Structures are given as structure tokens and as C-alpha cells.
Amino acid sequence: MDWGRAKNVLIYAFLLLNLVLGYQLWNDLEEQADSNLDYTSLEGSTQMIMDDKGIKVLAKIPNETPELPKISYRFVDGRQGGKITELPEPVDSKLIWTPKELQNALKSSLPDIANYSYDEVAGSEGMFVLHPLVEGQWPLFNIDLVLYYSNQKIISYMREDIEISSVSDEKEQRVLSASKALGNLIENYLPEGSVVKEIQLGYYGQVFDSDAHLPVTPAWRFMLESGKEYYVQGISGDVISPNTEKSKE
């Protein structure tokens, strides 16, 4: 046996192994950094309460605090809730969509699909959920476009057409930061063991069966792993939990 050559092979094998392990360690650390909450955005007292209550946050805390107006909307044809329309041609579906893929798949059947935002966490078995966009960017959470699928085909949809208007006498106001809204939830509202899996800024307001314009305001939505959701109004800081239909101020 050529021991010199065998020694070189072993050295190269160990170097390669170290490179692979080093890359894996770097990749794991990067993923951990991406998935961990930036606790520096929360007050120390909030972090302590979070630890005491066993609350976890798996979502990144957004840092934007844009100036947004209050708006209103009305149902174009009155509230029709529950009217399902069959698609002319079933569309191939899959379990996970990117917004662009969803738009491309449905633009022939729903030409205005680009005006809606795909809500990955709000869907359930047999249905995808989207929301109309305010100013092309912020989802109006309490209005849904529901896509129904079966046997890997999107076969029908349900939506209520609305008309969005700005409130002319209201000035744009800077929204409350997501970290402050989350801190309030952690300290006062979230039950022990809660896991926050999604944080998103949009618009939210009560839905009434009315032909009048209904006011909505900017709001942070916090989705829990349990399926419960909380909305923190972006201007007043009031907290709403639609699951219990209770507003907490």
C-alpha cells in the first residue's frame, strides 16, 4: 500500500468534511438568525413577561411605520355573502403558491386578481384566501376572495365586490410600530404558551350588512399558531380579537 498517497487522501477527505460541516454550521446560524425575533425591538420588561408566559414569536417583526390614511368601503351590490361562482375552466392548483404564480394561474378567469393579496396563513383545507389591496399594497383583512379547490383543481370562487374610498377630512397618520403593538399583546392579552407565526400590516374594520360606506383603519394583524388572531389598530392602539368578537381597549 502507498501510505503517502493514502495519507494525502485522508487529509483531503478531512478538509472536505470540515468544509461541509463549516458550511452547514454557517447555514444553520443564518437560518436561526433569520427566524429568531429581534428582541432588541422589545422592552426588557416585555421580554421577561414573554419568557415567564412561555410565548414564542416565529415571525419577523416588521420595522416599517408608514403614514397611512383612514379609508372606507362599500359593497357594490349590497352584501351577498355566500354566493359561489364556478370557474369556466378548472385551474391546476398546488398547496403552496407565490403571489405571482397565483396571478398567472387565474388572470384569465379573474382579470383583477392582481388587485388581491394571497393570505397564506388564512386558508384551510379546500380553500385559498385572498384580500383586496388598498393602494396596491395593504391588504383589507376583513374582506375575502375565497378560492375553492378539489382534486388539485381550483373550481370556484366567492367574493363580494367593494368600492374603496379615502376619508377626505382625515390626514395620513404614522402607524404604531409592530414592536409596540406586539409588546402590548404579550403583556396584556396573549395566553401562556402562545406562538405568534405571522405579523402583517393592513386595514381592518367591522363588517356590517349595509349599503353605506364602512370605515376601516390601518391595523397590525397577529396570527397565532392556534388559529386565533388579534388586530391592533395602527392609530389608536386598540386591540380586537375577532375570534371572540370582543374589542379590548
Give a written overview of the molecule.
It is built from four helices and 16 strands. The chain has 249 residues and is of the alpha+beta class. It has three domains: 35 residues; 113 residues, Beta Barrel (Lipocalin), CATH 2.40.128; 78 residues, 2-Layer Sandwich (TATA-Binding Protein). Strands 1, 3, 10, 12, 13, 14, 15 and 16 form an eight-stranded mixed β-sheet that branches. Strands 4, 5, 6, 7, 8 and 9 form a six-stranded antiparallel β-sheet that branches. The longest helix is centred in the first third of the chain and has 33 residues. The radius of gyration is 24 Å and the shape is globular. The C terminus is likely disordered.
Keywords summarizing the entry:
8-stranded mixed sheet; single chain; disordered C terminus; TATA-Binding Protein; alpha+beta; YycI-like; Lipocalin; 249 residues; Regulatory protein YycH-like domain-containing protein; 33% strand
Précis, in short:
The chain has 249 residues and is α+β, with helices and mostly antiparallel strands.
Strand tally: 16
CATH class of the largest domain: Mainly Beta
| Largest sheet descriptor | 8 strands, mixed
Determine the strand fraction and express it as a percent band: 25-35%
Q: Return the CATH topology of the largest domain.
A: Lipocalin
Average pLDDT taken over every residue: 80
Low-confidence stretches: 28-36, 245-249
Please provide the ordered H/E string of secondary-structure elements.
HHEEEEHEEEEEEEHEEEEE
Q: Would you identify the CATH architecture of the largest domain?
A: Beta Barrel
* Ends apart, CA distance between termini: 81 Å
**Rg over C-alpha atoms, rounded to the nearest angstrom:** 24 Å
Secondary-structure content class: alpha+beta
Tell me the overall shape.
Answer: globular
The count of helical stretches stands at 4
Helix content: 10-25%
